[in-house]
Amino acid sequence: MKSTIKDVARMANVSISTVSRVLNNPDIVAKDKRDNILDAIKQLNYTPNALARGLIHKRTQTLGVLIPDISNLFYAELIKGMEDAAHQSGNNLIICNTDNNQDRKNSSFKVLSEKQIDGIVLTSEPVYPDSYEMFKQLGVPIVLAATHSLEYEIPSVKVNDELAAFDAAEYLIRRGHRQIGMISGSMLDPISGLPRIQGFLRALRAHGIDLDPEKCIEHGNYHFNDGYEAMKRLHKKFPGMTAVFATSDERAIGCISYLHENKIKVPDDISVIGFDNTRIAGMSFPKLTAVAQPLHEMGQFVIRKLDRLINGESLEELRTYMAHWIVERETVCDLKK
Amino acid sequence: MKSTIKDVARMANVSISTVSRVLNNPDIVAKDKRDNILDAIKQLNYTPNALARGLIHKRTQTLGVLIPDISNLFYAELIKGMEDAAHQSGNNLIICNTDNNQDRKNSSFKVLSEKQIDGIVLTSEPVYPDSYEMFKQLGVPIVLAATHSLEYEIPSVKVNDELAAFDAAEYLIRRGHRQIGMISGSMLDPISGLPRIQGFLRALRAHGIDLDPEKCIEHGNYHFNDGYEAMKRLHKKFPGMTAVFATSDERAIGCISYLHENKIKVPDDISVIGFDNTRIAGMSFPKLTAVAQPLHEMGQFVIRKLDRLINGESLEELRTYMAHWIVERETVCDLKK
DNA sequence: CTGAAAGCGCTTACAG
DNA sequence: CTGAAAGCGCTTACAG
Lengths: 337, 337
Description:
The structure is a homodimer.
Chain A: H1 5-12, H2 16-24, H3 31-44, H4 50-57, E1 62-67, H5 73-88, E2 92-97, H6 102-114, E3 119-123, H7 129-138, E4 142-145, E5 156-159, H8 161-174, E6 180-184, H9 194-206, H10 213-216, E7 217-219, H11 224-237, E8 243-246, H12 249-261, E9 271-276, E10 289-292, H13 295-310, E11 319-322, E12 325-327
Parallel strand pairs in A: 1-2, 1-3, 3-4, 4-5, 5-11, 6-7, 6-8, 8-9, 9-10
Antiparallel strand pairs in A: 10-12
Chain A binds a DNA duplex through residues 4-6, 14-18, 20-21, 23-24, 28-30, 33, 48-49, 51-58.
């Protein structure tokens, strides 16, 4: 059985108040008693019960994290950053995989609320009015990771997706490409779908490239296969293409796989640029050039922001947009005339 | 502010005992009161405080998981399985990233103990005598994932590494290869190092292949770069090699990367087989043939086993060895004479 | 400097 | 069927 503060008090011949004091404010108790108590603690292998403490302090040092899919490298790297920062600030993370399933999301919210977590981080999803209601009822600080809300005043940390896409497209253009395709998420996705498409199209316009969005953009999900299939469709409808911007690393690698299979050389025939720069970007063949998001840092920043909120400190900024950059590897080359 | 059982009792004009009853044993309270209480609960958006409950029941429905590196796909997929099973059994997971750092491991143990988790899962590491002492002091059930202990009676779930390596090697041999190299972890790693080497060598012996371990085995860490570097060394010291067994997918892909760079064709010049069959195996070029571990199922099984232990149920078996298999893709071919 | 008491939000015998 | 009381393991004024 786990020993309690009573056991320690008994062994050290003091009241539990005194034991509690050496735990929380040691200097205030007489040295001899303190030493006895410390001794008893050691002997009994006593460790304070965080439930009892939490009940009193209304603080559990536990944070909830809602994630669509932990087995996705993007989230795995993000979580790693969160874990590191949480550990530094003495917090633990309860990670709830939601599988993008509303029921599971609701039940996670409920349990996290019951467990009296001090704060919560939501990833990727847009904030709809009804989720906003849930947040308010939770009654704890919340911060958004890899998403944001323009309608509500919710702290967030992400990259500027429109700009990142703009930069990716412009990078290709600077390398001489004009017939540029895009493999993107859904237009209906207001976070990482539409903004990236807008950034892409803005870059084309800025450089006087007149391409029909219907022709140069294909949509698909985030995974390898989605990239593969999207590239198949794109290649059919846009044969003149010399470069393609795929808005996730996996998609980009799926797209390269299609090109390999069809004996189309990367980057000689078609250049490819990805998005995220997760670890797999460095493992593909050829190695993927990609727009990088600082995933680990984003994760850390999110937790620091949340911690500040929990401690009642103010935020320097509500919505943080972290810098992205381009990691040049081997899948983009200058367009040969 | 969050409402408590008192608020509900006040609003419904009953004692808190009665409120507690409708929460835990609704049939026992009179219908009219019950309805009133249910109403009050809804209106106040009341949700019971799990800390208070945990204090009484000595059960938190929270499990601790110690993981060396969540950003590693192997663990990410394993955790996904754990999360799914935990959700099914009404548990939450507190995941502690240990970075293979002893201090961080110790502090995680301490916090998990304070938070009164109901059970804990340890991944990958061998169980040393002093860690065993820590386990006992924790006083909660523990199960090992992707590792096991032959010295101690600790439940575990993993694959049979020796046999899996044997099968991998034999698979290559059946395809006509005899000059087979291995890229392995350390001999000093009793879990996924030595046993795999033993399995590999046993297969060679079984088929009358006489190869000097010093010559055909190279060691390195788990990552892409380690695989790359190990392959460089291996290729130098074992030029006749026609196939190589790399004991992680990342290593295998790093090794393929080295071969690409040196214009050595995979699989025509050298066949490669990996280990784990994480999602990246299907994304490499060529697609990686690999020994598969049922990571998701392992994760689920670990949690189910832990849950059973927590509920005082008995286990059918202490050490579970799950079946592995080989996923044939594109990196192994028959040896041409 | 230290102890007794109240209280955090619940559950569960014990009476009635 | 229901309420008052004790108790889970702590912390924190309040006295002394």
